[in-house]
Amino acid sequence: MSIGILGGGQLGYMLALAGYPLGMRFRFLDPSPEAPVGRIAPRVTGDFADRGALDKFANGLQVVTYEFENVPFDSAQWLAKRVSVYPPPAALETAQDRLREKQLFEKLKIPTTPYASLSSAYDLDTAIKKIGLPAVVKTRRMGYDGKGQWVLKTPEDVKAAKEILPKQAFVLEKFVAFERELSIIAVRGKSGETAFYPLVENYHREGILRLSLAPARSVAPEIQRAAEYAAVQVLDSLNYVGVLAIEFFELDGELLANEMAPRVHNSGHWTIEGAVTSQFENHLRAISGLPLGQTTPIGASAMINLIGELPDMAEVLAVPSTHLHLYGKEPRPGRKLGHVTLRAPSVDRLFSRFASLPPFFHRPDFCLDGVKS
Amino acid sequence: MSIGILGGGQLGYMLALAGYPLGMRFRFLDPSPEAPVGRIAPRVTGDFADRGALDKFANGLQVVTYEFENVPFDSAQWLAKRVSVYPPPAALETAQDRLREKQLFEKLKIPTTPYASLSSAYDLDTAIKKIGLPAVVKTRRMGYDGKGQWVLKTPEDVKAAKEILPKQAFVLEKFVAFERELSIIAVRGKSGETAFYPLVENYHREGILRLSLAPARSVAPEIQRAAEYAAVQVLDSLNYVGVLAIEFFELDGELLANEMAPRVHNSGHWTIEGAVTSQFENHLRAISGLPLGQTTPIGASAMINLIGELPDMAEVLAVPSTHLHLYGKEPRPGRKLGHVTLRAPSVDRLFSRFASLPPFFHRPDFCLDGVKS
Known about the structure:
Two copies of one chain form a homodimer. Chain A is α+β, with helices and mostly antiparallel strands. Chain A has three domains: 2-85, Rossmann fold (3-Layer(aba) Sandwich); 114-174, 2-Layer Sandwich (Dna Ligase, domain 1), CATH 3.30.1490; 180-370, ATP-grasp fold, B domain (D-amino Acid Aminotransferase, Chain A, domain 1). In chain A, 29% of the residues lie in helices and 28% in strands. Chain A is built from 13 helices and 18 strands. In chain A, the strands form three sheets. In chain A, strands 10, 11, 12, 13, 14, 15, 16, 17 and 18 form a nine-stranded antiparallel β-sheet that branches. In chain A, helix 1 (10-19) packs across helix 10 (279-287) and helix 3 runs antiparallel to helix 4 (89-95). The longest helix of chain A is centred in the middle third of the chain and has 17 residues, at 221-237. The termini of chain A are far apart. The model of chain A has no long low-confidence stretch (mean pLDDT 94).
């Protein structure tokens, strides 16, 4: 089985590492000659919109998938005429655009935050009349890790926003004072079978995921069911194949769908050691038409992102039951360079293990205290 | 950290897959242009004795290790003058020669089977006078997977052996009607710290390992201690760095050391899913001077070798808690093509799961019944 992956970052890296034991072969397409996957798989260096590069990339592949959701929809469609592309390009098109995503949630009666669509920042006043303040302006396209988002609290913020916002289309969302963010990693196979990991608690700083706790604590069975039901609705409506992540806000015992990602997701990295089958293996099983693997968690896991700088490797590995994942990228502020997963038989044992992490991790950025409180 | 590995088979393949998440880079040397590692790492194709190839291979590496113990000792020594080589070449020299291995066990007072050394098959009669029948003739060098071994039961066997045995040096060992074969995977770091996985039960057919059950059942604490003590003696005496495997015969509540392997070992493959840290990661941690990882098992595991032919992949993956590892080699009789690891919370649950394996596995070769009886 030869699998092509659009995008050559850490998600592609971890997909390949999960697929090699299954005898799969990989080829990547990435615009950067520095993409980390170059060390572990053949790679075509070229733009995602370059038909010549796409052609070279697709030659001889059995299936193509993406680790990056901002691949041009046209390119995905062009590839789909030549080779199986999973998840289907229509899912990519929906997930690339916050407005389409919101409209899909609405159509499927999945609760989401109230929103208004703006063709440019000039429509802000009308939108705010509808939604009220505080609110969040989000670009319809290309937002990630908190980029392309602005919180508006006061009429002054709105006035300032009209000056500084780029000239593009937005969605304005009501600001939700949620209790916590939960996400679900779901997977759907070629014949429509589905599997779900337990909901995970996510902690962010500056818009970037810092820590995921899996499984999430004190999740009522109806909350897990609601998340799975939302995921199934989305998966079936898009005739989806592969892993899909949906992020929710939890508020007053209810879930509001925030956004989705048509790919393996940072809040699912804990599954490498913390679940019977990882999200990466399950994505590959799904797109290859193989049976899905068990999503049962093994104890409690905390996944901690390493952003911008790396700790001393030996100090991290000296902590019992700690698993280090480095992505082979050059350090740069705000860049995801790796992650650490701690696993323990229970969440209490997990939290007590935090104390043995080196001082590097005991800064507020890592949310080790945040998650415990 | 750039690591060179001599040998490009499945052990090297699994070492690289364990090292990539730690940010390690790998280069392989293997005489075959078909070596499976070629898909996942740069590789120099050349003979292990070819100084030009060795030079090209070693250039820029921080450490060299082996996944194959029949690398010429001279080559290991030559490399050790240029780059750190772990385990030390002296360990390789001992493990390559059954006589040296036996002499080391004797020197360290590690119980082993009675034996005699023969410079050729012509000395058989003298050796048999010392050891008695039944006995096993083993070539001093290059034996593996039951190759280079002949069981002698009767004087007629001895007579025939003198005719057919190749002209080389042998060891004659007393044939031991052992109750079971146990092995220990041990690891020693650069500063002398050691860690041990629990003893494993091994089941062979035609001299090839078919199934390992981990941890071994009903192991008295003094048996585990005896195995660890034997391993520590060998590790310390050789100033060893890396993973070492020792196989033992269990007989009347005692262990007899049978042989050792100066590398990661087939009876340790279960550690990928069945232990907190795999033997592969621990070998890499050791040779890189990093702290050793926990060797604690997670439930009970059965590792089943796939030899000569492969089952239907989808049927295997449909069995819950089953992990498939394919080595990317062309099927050939007697060749190790992959392995399957089943994991369960207890050995009873593990055995009951055997029933869900597809018919392919329910042949005596796989020892599924053998291990249960």
